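Predict the 3D structure for this chain.
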Amino acid sequence: MIKKMGYRWHLRQLMAARGMFQTTDLVPLLAERGVHLSREQVFRLVTQPPQRLSMDTLAALCDILECGVEQLIEVTVVDQQVRKVASGESAAGPAPAVRRTTIRRPDGS
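Done. Predicted structure below.
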């Protein structure tokens, strides 16, 4: 079975719960912990889930927000499980049949 995993990013909510409402509030706090990000990078980090995140940044965020990784990142299942079978077909059914197509010119030839 194959599971498609996703996650929810709770940085903005955790910041708000600690009275931090501007993304620029994080810049000096991260720098104090050796993580140097531009204002634009911090804005993206707060406003959208990151695709990649360094362990240093993750550790610094957890320290700043006094939280654990599990509070910052909530792992979710995006799709239902799909069962793979040996023939390459999924348990949902066979793959659609391949059909040949004939291309005809507008002049009928």
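Residues 11-67 form one domain.
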